[in-house]
């Protein structure tokens, strides 16, 4: 399905690549400008699905959601490493919470090219956008003590033998180090991959199905 490959390639070319680490964009607004992601506004999170943020679901977290996410993040206040664990758990919570609402509870990790356009199915653009929205929600409510939310980034552009892939990113405040929080490689509601961004950039993505 060349059209899907081409669309993902264009997404990748419009956001930072491995050789552009020095130009790391700390503002998620830049990602929203180059994709169809809608940033959180008026208390709503806009959940991308259908591949390439083709579809958006407006979700307004309620008081119970905030209470649960606050409880999760409080467990990680002791250190940056513990907070990254809590951020991953909070993303798990949101994915599980939203799965039945938009049909993403059946979303499998990796990229199945035959699922493009199907409501509830997500590619890496959707996943990176959604994880960023969840992280922005945590940040807006003052729940992140050791990190700030950066713009998603992407790697791979076919010519280097790697399939294009994107991830959400956070920056550790004390060390200025960036970390990938990558939910695309896992099934919906499963703890995401969290690792130093430089290590994530160097890897060859797995999980391509239906190519």
Could you characterize what this model shows?
It is a single chain. With 211 residues, the chain is of the alpha+beta class. The chain has one domain. The protein is built from 6 helices and 8 strands, in the order ααββααβαββββαβ. It has helices spanning 2-13, 29-34, 63-74, 80-102, 124-140, 197-202, and strands at 45-49, 55-59, 111-112, 147-155, 165-172, 178-182, 193-196, 208-209. The chain has a 4-stranded antiparallel sheet with strand order 4-5-6-7. The chain starts with a helix and ends with a strand. Residues 1-22 form the signal peptide. Keywords: Signal.
Write the layout of secondary structure elements.
Blueprint: H1 2-13, H2 29-34, E1 45-49, E2 55-59, H3 63-74, H4 80-102, E3 111-112, H5 124-140, E4 147-155, E5 165-172, E6 178-182, E7 193-196, H6 197-202, E8 208-209
Parallel strand pairs: 3-8
Antiparallel strand pairs: 1-2, 4-5, 5-6, 6-7
Helix pairs in contact: 3-4, 4-5
Proportion of beta-strand residues: 15-25%
- Please, what is the average pLDDT? 84
Distance between the termini: 8 Å
Query: Which sequence of strands runs across the widest sheet?
Result: 4-5-6-7
Low-confidence runs (pLDDT<50, min 5 residues)?
Answer: 9-23, 158-162, 207-211
Secondary-structure-based class equals: alpha+beta
Give the number of helices.
Answer: 6
Short overview:
This protein has 211 residues and is of the alpha+beta class. It has helices at residues 2-13, 29-34, 63-74, 80-102, 124-140, 197-202; strands at residues 45-49, 55-59, 111-112, 147-155, 165-172, 178-182, 193-196, 208-209. The chain has one domain (2-209).
């Amino acid at each position: 399905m060349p059209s899907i490959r081409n669309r993902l390639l264009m997404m990748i070319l419009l956001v930072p690549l491995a050789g552009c680490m020095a130009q790391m964009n700390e503002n998620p607004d830049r990602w929203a400008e180059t994709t169809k992601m809608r940033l959180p506004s008026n208390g709503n999170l806009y959940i991308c699905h259908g591949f390439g943020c083709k579809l958006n679901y407006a979700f307004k977290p309620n008081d119970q959601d905030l209470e649960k996410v606050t409880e999760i993040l409080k467990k990680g206040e002791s250190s940056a490493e513990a907070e990254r664990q809590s951020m991953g758990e909070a993303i798990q919570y949101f994915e599980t919470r939203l799965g039945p609402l938009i049909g993403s509870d059946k979303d499998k990790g990796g990229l199945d090219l035959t699922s493009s356009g199907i409501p509830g199915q997500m590619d890496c653009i959707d996943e990176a956008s959604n994880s960023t929205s969840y992280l922005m929600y945590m940040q807006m409510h003052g729940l992140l003590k050791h990190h700030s939310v950066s713009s998603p980034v992407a790697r791979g552009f076919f010519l280097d033998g790697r399939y294009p892939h994107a991830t959400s990113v956070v920056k550790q405040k004390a060390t200025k180090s960036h970390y990938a929080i990558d939910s695309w490689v896992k099934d919906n509601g499963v703890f995401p991959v969290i690792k130093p961004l430089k290590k994530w950039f160097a890897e060859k993505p797995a999980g391509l199905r239906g190519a």
